[in-house]
Amino acid sequence: MPPAKRSIKNRVRYHVAESLEEAESLVSFFGNYVTRHGQEALLRHKYAATDHSIVLKYITDPLYCKWVTYFPKWLPPNIITLIGLSFTATSHAMLAMQCPMLEGTIPVWMGVYNAFAILAYQAFDAMDGKQARRTGSGSPLGMLFDHGCDALNTTVMAISCATVLQLGPTPAAALCCGLAWAGFFTNTLEEYYTGELYLGYINMPNEGLQIMALIHLCSPFISVGWWRAPVAMFGWSFPRNHLALALMAAPALVTILYNTLVIIFELSRKREREQARALDSKGVLTAPERYETSLLVAAYRCVPPAFVFWAFMTWALLSPSDLLGRSPRLMLWTIGISNAKLVTAIMLAHVCDEEYHPFSRTIACLCTLLVHVMFHLKWHRDGVLLWDIKLEDLLLQEAFTILLGSYVHMVYAMVYEVSHALGIYAFTITKKRSARAPVSSADPPVSSLSASPPRPSPAKTASPPRQSPARVTNKRAAAKKTS
Q1: 24-422 adopts what CATH topology?
Q2: What's the pTM?
Q3: In the list 42, 77, 143, 482, which could disulfide-bond 131, CB 3.0-4.6 Å?
């Protein structure tokens, strides 16, 4: 290679390395998400999941096992996850441009693509794990990446469902999203307490997405008026879309109730086991043991998502300028990002074997802002303070911007720290380091965006044992006698 080209290449490498170091320092400036104990727990973590879906067992899983063999072995599983999410993201973007107010006519080609996008996401979401097992690159980072994409896709699917049902910018659309968020949150919290992801014989990731795909496929052939036409039942009159929402809410409520009961049963079982162990050792339960087996603590961990949803719905119902009617997608995405941040924090605490603290700095700031909004609404209703439309829009935009920035930083920092602890990269197939060799503070930082695998640190040669002065003197005296 000519010296000029070589110098240019070296300069580019230098500037790329310098920018990566600046990004790494920016990540650590706001604090770390993974502690030293979490780094060691990541190396020991074993993923456990049970899926009893009938459709998955007899129809889709055999297809996925065949299709995954067409992927090249150099393709990382996280790229497959991102490809699947890109289908539903583009579908959601097209629906947002066609129906910005969650209502309107949907073209036939868009309905067909939306149905295809949902089924493609389901297939890629299932095949990323198969690709990880096929290439031997499965890790807690892949699980976190998969669940993080699922958390975002929950909001995408919920808002798209509200649009297809022609719910419009109404509290019914917010209720449709709230059921999806609550189901995903309680399912993740159940996995945190039980250590295993459990899906029943009919569940949302399998049959639920297939029903959603069918609704999207039929949506172009169903008029807006048909969805909103009233239907008489039991002496009451309901619009068809509200009746469809009620039919979808029934299994969601059953899932939420089941997850709650499993958490209560698991905590009771853990408390009995810890008390029996304490009696055998003639001791008492320690404060951390009582904390992790407390039903009150489990209920406290559900307070932030419940309060955020209640506060935003109160804001939407009491807003003098009808904020939900003017900016429905912005309000729903603000709640959705807060739910995704909470769920991701639960999964990170689960794989790091640490306590889950729901009131992070961002969630605390959001709750403070919502309390401020509640006081403003009360003062406006009492005639003490006039409510400005621009101020109301600014508050919602501030909440969305703060949450989005915090969530992006959390995802980047989490990927960087977990990949550094495991000695792997997010978008390159590498094998994680052994649990016997935990990450050292003296190891060089590993960038999750680099394309080359980490270089192993050179092994230190063992130095010979040092001899005491008395032993050296005795050897010299013995040498003199022999001479």
Answers
A1: Four Helix Bundle (Hemerythrin (Met), subunit A) (1.20.120)
A2: 0.83
A3: 77
